[in-house]
Amino acid sequence: MKNISNIHDCYGCGVCATVCPQKIIDISLNADGFYEPHISDEAKCTDCGLCRCVCSYCDEGLSLKNPEIYSYAAWSKVHAVRRKCSSGGVGFEVGRTLINEGYKVCGVRYNAEKNIAEHYIATTVEELIPSIGSKYIQSYTVDGFKAIDCKQKYLVTGTPCQIDSLRRYLQLRHKEENFILMDFFCHGVPSMLMWRMYCSMVEDKIGKISYASWRNKQTGWHDSWAMGIDGEEHGQEVNWHDSYSSLLRERSCYLQSRMSQGDAFYALFLGNCCLGKACYEHCKFKYDHSSADIRIGDLWGEKYKEDEDGVSAAIAFTPKGSDILSLTDCELTELPFKIVAEGQMKEMPKKRKSYKIIMEMLHHGNASIEDLKHKINSIKKIERRMNYLKNPMILFSVLLKKCHRNVFLN
Ligand SMILES: Cc1cc2nc3c(=O)[nH]c(=O)nc-3n(C[C@H](O)[C@H](O)[C@H](O)COP(=O)(O)OP(=O)(O)OC[C@H]3O[C@@H](n4cnc5c(N)ncnc54)[C@H](O)[C@@H]3O)c2cc1C
Ligand code: SF4
Ligand code: SF4
Fold first, then answer.
1. What is the percentage of the chain residues whose pLDDT exceeds 90?
2. Which residues line ligand 3 (CB under 6 A)?
3. Which SS3 state, helix, strand or coil, does residue 174 take?
4. Does the C-beta of 157 come closer than 6 Å to ligand 1?
């Protein structure tokens, strides 16, 4: 079979659905809560093989050949942009520069009605604003990608796996030169079942979510892992078509929940408890492996450890990417790649021993997000004790103590 009907637990990038001339590929969430393709009507498939041809998951290699590396510490010269964005604001500045050069931008916004992240097209700087900030859930790409007109010029941002497949699509169409592709260092994406559980806990308190943001620098960049959420019953209404500068202001949300204070979403996401199977077993995009023109991320590490406004890692893998970085309104300091990428993952995350239990709890859906967090904490405690006892000297002294106690009691 030349089509993708036997592909499961893939990257869920949606490029197969974009390319299919018969329009018979749908992308929907699988039982674990990750996007996956399905053929709606096999009889209409002409076996053209295009869906497999653009599929990064079906191939071992990367679609960008012979990458170069130009690596920088970078941040927006506009203080409000730097404060509002997840790291130093380079993602937004690249978008703004290219819109001013006549490009359109396909980026990711949060759709509060459906509680999903989705790709969409921005044609003005105001329309670009909802793309600001990382949404740490898998985005639904299909409507955004299908709306791209390959004859025009676009910046497309996304996870490295989405971008690798998209480059294959552009190579197939001979339209690579019209596009700038941007990805980021990618930790992975958590199950949408977990996100839905988190949303239902929040919505019990504040009504239907009307705005969600994952990072906020009110207590500094290093402590910026904070869920900021407004609901219809509490919080301010967000009008994305407000003036550009008023939306960049740091807004405070009704519900704030920080990782440093034990937020359950971050405990599960960054604790690698419920990422996609492809993230654990099939990710070929860590560290310097990318098919993008530009890769962005947080520049954690020694050099900027005192900075609390945020510093981006910005790496260009192509001369085109490097030229665009130099056009942006950003402070750029060229540094060796290993400094720019300090602290980034070099390998895929390991599945935790608790993974199966967590996924079962998510499938049943009868637990709350806080139950899940407590479960993980108690499993972690047991894992720590087991690791401790694996040390022969510690095990010997524990057994010795037990023997003494038994002798004494007898
Ligand atoms: C799932 C995920 C995992 C990440 N893992 C890491 C990591 O391990 N290490 C690291 O340094 N950085 C990681 N990042 C990137 C980091 O959070 C910042 O996005 C990055 O530092 C750029 O910030 P910025 O200030 O330049 O721009 P911002 O304005 O914050 O730019 C955000 C950009 O990301 C795009 N985007 C937002 N959410 C998504 C999404 N769900 N899917 C696809 N594209 C999206 C937007 O379209 C926008 O272009 C991750 C981001 C995501 C979404
Ligand atoms: S082989 Fe061609 S027609 Fe069949 S699903 Fe794939 S892209 Fe569509
Ligand atoms: S970790 Fe790898 S497979 Fe998972 S979303 Fe990121 S790039 Fe894709």
1. 79
2. 11, 159-161, 186, 188-189, 276, 278-279, 283, 285
3. coil
4. yes
DSSP letters spanning 269-299: HHTTSSB-HHHHHS---STT---SSEEEEE-
Question: Model confidence at 410, in pLDDT bands (50, 70, 90)?
Answer: low
Residue that wins the pLDDT comparison between 144 and 353: 144
Longest dimension (CA), the chain: 87
Q: Could you identify the residue written with the tokens 């964005």?
A: 85
Question: Is any ligand 1 atom within 6 A of the Cβ of residue 84?
Answer: no
Choosing from 15, 16, 19, 22 the residue with most ligand 2 atoms within 8 A of its CB, the one to mutate for a pocket test is 22
Q: For ligand 1, pick from 116, 134, 266, 288 the residue to mutate: most ligand atoms within 8 Å of CB.
A: 134
- d(CA 23, CA 32) in angstroms, rounded, equals 25
**pLDDT at residue 201 tops 70:** yes
| DSSP secondary structure string for all residues of 96-142 | HHHHHTT-EEEEEEEETTTTEEEEEEE-SHHHHGGG-S---SPEE-H
Beta carbons within 10 angstroms of residue 373's beta carbon: 19
Q: From 135, 347, 372, select the one nearest 271 (Cα to Cα).
A: 372
Q: Is the pTM of this model over 0.85?
A: yes
pLDDT digits (tens, 9 = 90+) for 250-290: 777 888 899 998 899 999 999 999 999 999 999 999 999 99
User: Are the beta carbons of 241 and 249 closer than 8 angstroms?
Assistant: no
Residues in the chain: 410
Mean pLDDT, range 223-249, rounded to an integer: 81
Q: Where are the domains of the chain?
A: 70-340, 380-409
pLDDT per position as a tens digit, 138-175: 999 999 999 999 999 999 999 999 999 999 999 999 99
